């Protein structure tokens, strides 16, 4: 890796100040950034660690009943502390990577990176979550803007993610066995006003809502109501699977998620 300085602020205000220069990058759990530095694909002169900011950690229930998770909260903590209030989200967090990743990686870091095969983007989009930063609140429908692209501005920090808790929900992931990223992952969430279905790992544009499935499942929440697989056009095609294969998996994983949600 290149040499760099590291700062470890203890408040959001200090972190924002430290990130005000073009040479600085935020460091959450480091599960993506550290390998990037090792491969010399990024060479910041300053890393601003967010790990010492207590105010962006923890899980609680908001006044409106939403599950509120601090941006600096690790996957392992989400898996443990969200189990009673949002089991589907807790199960998703508990199956990310391996124990080392789950105890270092954070929900805010995952959403800020927006890897096209990451699990949390599907949960946030299917739940209609709100991503809260140090300056504003962003609806999940507006937040995800393509592969590795989000609505975040330079120096903006995810401080909290608010998840409306659904009546029923489940996440099903067809894993790439080496990385445990989603070759295709589908999160289904049923609310009083309808069903939301979000797909990760499949599209060249990153996480997306499968609106045809949402319409069908809002009328009949059963695996039999899941429509035929979408077109393979625009789906990722690589050594792990073709676009047509990933499109087929979308329908399969959606059916499994609906069945698991009950």
Polypeptide structure, described:
The structure is a single chain. This protein has 262 residues and is of the alpha+beta class. The chain has three domains: 5-49, Uridine Diphospho-n-acetylenolpyruvylglucosamine Reductase, domain 2; 54-163, Uridine Diphospho-n-acetylenolpyruvylglucosamine Reductase, domain 3, CATH 3.30.465.10; 168-261, 2-Layer Sandwich (Enolase-like, domain 1). It is 30% helix and 22% strand. The chain has ten helices and twelve strands. The protein has helices at 12-18, 33-38, 75-81, 87-93, 99-102, 107-113, 120-127, 140-143, 211-219, 243-261, and strands at 5-7, 24-27, 46-49, 59-61, 67-70, 130-133, 137-139, 158-163, 168-175, 182-191, 194-200, 208-209. The strands form three sheets. It has a five-stranded antiparallel sheet. A hairpin with a 3-residue loop joins strand 6 and strand 7. The radius of gyration is 18 Å and the shape is globular.
Name a few traits of the molecule.
FAD-bd_PCMH-like_sf, 30% helix, 4-stranded antiparallel sheet, 262 residues, 5-stranded antiparallel sheet, FAD-bd_PCMH, 12 strands, alpha+beta, Uridine Diphospho-n-acetylenolpyruvylglucosamine Reductase, domain 3, FAD binding, Enolase-like, domain 1, Uridine Diphospho-n-acetylenolpyruvylglucosamine Reductase, domain 2, FAD-bd_PCMH_sub1, 3 domains
């Amino acid at each position: 890796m290149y040499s760099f300085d590291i700062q470890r602020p203890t408040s959001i205000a200090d972190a924002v100040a430290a990130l005000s220069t073009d040479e600085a990058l935020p460091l959450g759990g480091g599960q993506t950034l550290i390998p990037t530095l090792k491969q010399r694909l990024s060479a910041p002169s300053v890393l601003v660690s967010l790990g010492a900011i207590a105010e962006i950690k923890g899980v609680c229930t908001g006044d409106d009943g939403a599950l509120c998770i601090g941006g600096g909260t690790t996957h392992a903590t989400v898996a443990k502390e969200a189990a009673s209030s949002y089991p589907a989200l807790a199960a998703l967090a508990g199956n990310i990577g391996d124990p080392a990743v789950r105890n270092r990686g954070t929900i805010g870091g995952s959403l800020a990176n927006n890897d096209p095969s990451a699990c949390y983007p599907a949960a946030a989009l299917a739940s209609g979550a709100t991503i809260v930063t140090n300056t504003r609140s962003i609806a999940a429908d507006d937040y995800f803007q393509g592969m590795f692209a989000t609505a975040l501005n330079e120096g903006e920090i995810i401080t909290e993610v608010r998840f409306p808790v659904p009546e029923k929900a489940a996440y099903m992931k067809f894993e790439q066995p080496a990385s445990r990223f989603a070759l295709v992952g589908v999160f289904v969430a049923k609310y009083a006003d309808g069903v939301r279905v979000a797909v990760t790992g499949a599209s060249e544009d990153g996480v997306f809502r499968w609106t045809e499935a949402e319409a069908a499942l809002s009328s009949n929440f059963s695996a039999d109501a899941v429509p035929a697989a979408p077109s393979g056009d625009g789906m990722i095609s690589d050594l792990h699977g073709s676009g047509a294969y990933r499109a087929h998996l979308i329908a399969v994983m959606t059916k499994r998620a609906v069945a698991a949600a009950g």
